[in-house]
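Sync notes, pocket subgroup
Present: LS, DG
LS reminded everyone that the earlier model was apo-only. Rerun requested with L34 included. Inputs:
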Amino acid sequence: MYKLIDGKKTANDIKREIAAEVAALKKSGGKVPHLAAILVGNNPSSETYVANKVKDCEEVGFESTLIRFDEKTEEDLLLKKIRELNNDDGVDGFIVQLPLPEHISEERVIEAIDPEKDADGFHPVNIGRMVIGAPGFLPATPYGIVELLKRYGISTSGSNCVVIGRSNIVGRPVSILLSRKGMDATVTVVHSRTRNAGEIIRSADIIIAALGSPGFVKADMVKEGAVVIDVGTTRIADPATKSGWRLAGDVDFENVAPVCSYITPVPGGVGPMTRVSLLKNTLYAVTRRKG
Ligand code: L34
């Protein structure tokens, strides 16, 4: 029988730990950590994620600020706001929720963020630090995945880990993180040009599915006893639900679960852990800034 990896519960456990740290900080006269989020436009998924991030801040006793821009906002205006946040001593960390509208360059936006306030860990400086194993901010989703594996006592050392997808925010960074000293996995990155993807995935002890294609990972691609981490959260039409849609992961959960040792659900798996990483990075920003 497979074990369900409960990301929601683990995230709540960690939030309690963070809340205790915040309370101790306050008691010793320290600054209340402050996370700001910029949301451009009204992408429904982004709206949900950012609203949950603000709620998480409240739960742990952080201060939070949500800054909204219209879908048609010009890049310059956004960059100006980022510089303002960089220089605002009251703000410890901030994020710009992705995706951004077509006319805005994600690259320029991310590079404008002060690496010391980069709560998402997306800035090239922090990506570079991660690659060489130096201390820094870790990308939110990969950080959450690693934490989840640790808390479930799943060892990555010497394991064959297959990452499906090579995005800048999940696939690429998680592949690097898992192969670092201390994690010590042997990592293969599978992508759209990979030959024999099924065969490679079938060789994995740990599968990280992060391609954004609902139900892509089928039971016949999974080795008996493998650990399966599902990063996908795609909204798909479902007339049976009140909203008319539901969240679908990259894994065909129903058929894959019986083959696994451990598996994450969607929702309630990686998503809540991504949000918790943001809190951890913000707390880290506070301690780094204290020097
Ligand atoms: N800048 N943009 C920036 N940073 C990020 O770290 C993200 N990401 C991804 C999209 N854009 C970003 C997120 O926050 C994806 N992501 C994210 C965050 C939270 C959840 C899912 C993805 C999440 O909380 N998921 C819940 C369900 C929420 C719902 O009902 O829609 C879950 O249980 O999976």
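DG: Residues 92 and 285 are 6 Å apart (CA to CA).
LS: The chain has a mean pLDDT of 97.
Action: DG to write up.
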